[in-house]
TrEMBL record:
NCBIfam families: matE
Keywords (A to Z) from UniProt: Cell membrane, Membrane, Transmembrane, Transmembrane helix, Transport
A GO CC term attached to the entry: plasma membrane
Membrane topology field: Multi-pass membrane protein
Keyword Transmembrane found: yes
Keyword Ribonucleoprotein in annotation: no
Membrane-spanning parts: 26-47, 67-91, 111-130, 150-174, 181-200, 206-228, 248-274, 294-315, 327-347, 362-384, 396-418, 424-446
Originating species: Fusicatenibacter faecihominis
InterPro entries: MATE_fam (IPR002528), MdtK-like (IPR048279), Membrane_Transporter-Flippase (IPR052031)
Subcellular location: Cell membrane
Protein name (database record): MATE family efflux transporter
PANTHER family assigned to the protein according to its UniProt record, in alphabetical order: MULTIDRUG RESISTANCE PROTEIN YPNP-RELATED (PTHR43549)
GO molecular function list: antiporter activity; xenobiotic transmembrane transporter activity
Length: 455
C-alpha cells in the first residue's frame, strides 16, 4: 500500500478535516467522537482485569491477592502523567482549532519529550521504591514476595503506558478518537492471548501475568507512536523542545494529575471504611464497582469528548458552540445514562449475579445499586461540565473542586455517617451527595467564567 492510499484509508494526512469538532452538528459530532472512546475504555479494562481473571482461575487466591495489592501503587504512579496527557491534549486541541499547524507540531514534540523522560524517571523511581511502597500499603507478608515480583515487572511497562496515554490524548486533540481505539483493541486481544499462553499453558503465575501486560502494552505504544509519527511527519525536520511550550503543558496538566492522584488516595480512605463492615460488604462493593463500569465508562467517554470539543472550539474562537454543547450534550448524556441506570435497576439481581453467586453479597450489592444508580445522571452532568471547565484551561479550578468536594468533603461526611449510623447504605449515600456538591461547584465555575459573561 503506497503512502497516499495509506493516508486516505486511515485519514493520516495531517489535515484531519473529518475529525474537526468545530463544524457541523454539535450533538452528532459529540456522540460520534465519544463512541470510540467508550469502546476503547472497554478494552482498557482488559489490561486491568485479564491478569486477575487468569491468575485467579489458574493459580490461586494468594497470587490473585498479589495482583490486586499492586494495582493501587501503579495507579498512583502513573496518575500524575495521566493528567499531564489530558493537559497536553487541551493545548494541542486549542492550536488545532485555531489552525496553527506549526504550534500543533511543536506541542506534540514537547508532549512526547515530556512523556518519554518523565516515564523513564518514574519507571526507575518505581523500581527503587517498589518494596517500601508495598510495605506502606500494608501488604500482607504472605503475598509480599509475589506482589513485589509482579510490580517490578509491571513497572517496566510504565514508560509505555505514559507514552501511550500521551499519544492517545494527542490523537483525541486532533479530532481522531478511532485510531487509539483500534490500536487499543488489538492490544487488549493480544493481552488476553498472552495471558492464556503464559499463565494457562506455561503456568508462569504472577510473573507471567506482568510479562503479558508488558508485551501487549509495548505493542500498543509502538504502533500508536508509529502512526502518530507517520501522520504528523515527526521524523522530518528538527524537533523544537522549548521551555515555553513545556511550561504551558505542565501548567495545564499538572493540576489534573494532582487531582487524579489525590482522588485515588481518597478512595483508599473510603476502602478503609468499607473494610470495617466485613467480608460481605467488601465483596458487595467489589461487585458494585464492577457493575458501575457500565455507567462510569460511557460518562468518562462523554467527558473526554467534551474536553476535546471545548479545546478545539475555544482555539477556533467558536464559543457559541461551546455554550450550546454544554447544554445540549449534558442533556443527551444525562438521558442516556439515566436510561442505562433504569435498565440496570430493573435487572439488578441478575446483573450482579454475573459477578458473584453468593446471595448475601448480591443482596448488599443491590442495596448499594438502588442508592446510587438513580443519581448517576448527576455524575454525568458533573463530569461534562467539569470537562468544559478543563477544556477552557481552568485546570487549577477543576483540581480545587475535585480535591475539596470529591476528596475532603467525601471523607469527612463518610466518617460522620459511619460513626453515627454504622450502615453500608451510608457509605453508598456519600457518593451521590458529593456528586451533587461537585456538580453545583462546576456549574458555578462555568457560569461565572469569562466565557459565559461574554454572551
Amino acid at each position: 500500500m503506497n503512502e497516499r492510499r495509506w493516508n486516505r484509508r486511515f485519514n493520516f494526512t495531517g489535515e484531519n478535516s473529518k475529525g474537526s469538532l468545530t463544524e457541523g452538528s454539535v450533538i452528532k459530532g459529540f456522540l460520534l467522537f465519544a463512541l470510540p472512546l467508550f469502546l476503547g475504555s472497554l478494552f482498557q479494562q482488559l489490561y486491568g482485569t485479564t491478569d486477575l481473571i487468569f491468575v485467579g482461575n489458574f493459580m490461586g487466591k494468594t497470587e490473585a491477592a498479589a495482583v490486586g495489592a499492586s494495582s493501587i501503587l501503579i495507579t498512583c504512579l502513573i496518575g500524575l502523567f495521566t493528567g499531564i496527557s489530558v493537559g497536553a491534549g487541551v493545548i494541542t486541541g486549542n492550536f488545532q482549532g485555531a489552525g496553527e499547524k506549526e504550534r500543533v507540531r511543536n506541542s506534540i514534540e514537547n508532549a512526547l519529550a515530556l512523556a518519554f523522560f518523565g516515564g523513564l524517571f518514574l519507571m526507575m523511581l518505581g523500581q527503587v521504591l517498589a518494596e517500601q511502597a508495598l510495605i506502606w500499603l500494608n501488604t500482607p507478608e504472605n503475598i509480599m514476595k509475589e506482589a513485589l515480583t509482579y510490580v517490578r515487572i509491571y513497572l517496566m511497562a510504565v514508560l509505555s503506558m505514559i507514552l501511550y496515554n500521551m499519544c492517545a490524548g494527542i490523537f483525541r486533540a486532533l479530532g481522531d478518537s478511532k485510531t487509539p481505539f483500534l490500536v487499543l483493541a488489538a492490544g487488549g486481544i493480544l493481552n488476553v492471548g498472552m495471558d492464556a499462553l503464559i499463565i494457562a499453558s506455561l503456568h508462569q503465575g504472577v510473573a507471567g501475568a506482568a510479562v503479558a501486560t508488558l508485551i501487549s502494552q509495548t505493542f500498543t505504544t509502538v504502533v500508536l507512536l508509529f502512526l502518530l509519527f507517520r501522520r504528523e511527519k515527526l521524523w522530518k525536520g528538527k524537533w523544537n523542545v522549548t521551555h515555553e511550550m513545556l511550561f504551558l503543558i505542565i501548567k495545564t496538566g499538572v493540576p489534573l494529575g494532582i487531582q487524579s492522584v489525590i482522588l485515588t488516595i481518597s478512595n483508599i480512605f473510603v476502602q478503609y471504611y468499607i473494610n470495617g463492615f466485613g467480608e460481605n460488604a467488601i465483596a458487595a462493593f467489589t461487585v458494585y464497582f464492577k457493575a458501575e463500569n457500565f455507567l462510569y465508562l460511557p460518562i468518562m467517554a462523554f467527558g473526554q469528548a467534551m474536553v476535546t470539543f471545548t479545546s478545539q472550539n475555544a482555539g477556533a474562537g467558536k464559543y457559541e458552540r461551546i455554550k450550546k454543547a454544554e447544554i445540549s450534550c449534558n442533556l443527551v448524556a444525562a438521558l442516556i445514562i439515566g436510561g442505562l441506570a433504569a435498565l440496570l435497576l430493573c435487572i439488578d439481581r441478575k446483573f450482579t449475579g454475573i459477578f458473584c453467586k453468593d446471595p448475601d453479597v448480591i443482596s448488599v450489592a443491590c442495596q448499594i445499586i438502588h442508592i446510587t444508580f438513580p443519581f448517576y445522571f448527576i455524575y454525568s452532568i458533573m463530569e461534562l461540565t467539569g470537562s468544559v471547565v478543563r477544556g477552557l484551561k481552568k485546570t487549577f479550578l477543576s483540581m480545587v473542586i475535585v480535591i475539596v468536594d470529591l476528596c475532603l468533603v467525601r471523607v469527612l461526611i463518610l466518617a460522620w455517617l459511619v460513626a453515627y449510623f454504622h450502615s453500608v447504605s451510608m457509605v453508598a449515600m456519600v457518593y451521590p451527595m458529593t456528586w451533587l456538591l461537585a456538580m453545583f461547584s462546576f456549574l458555578l465555575c462555568y457560569r461565572k467564567s469569562e466565557l459565559f459573561r461574554s454572551f
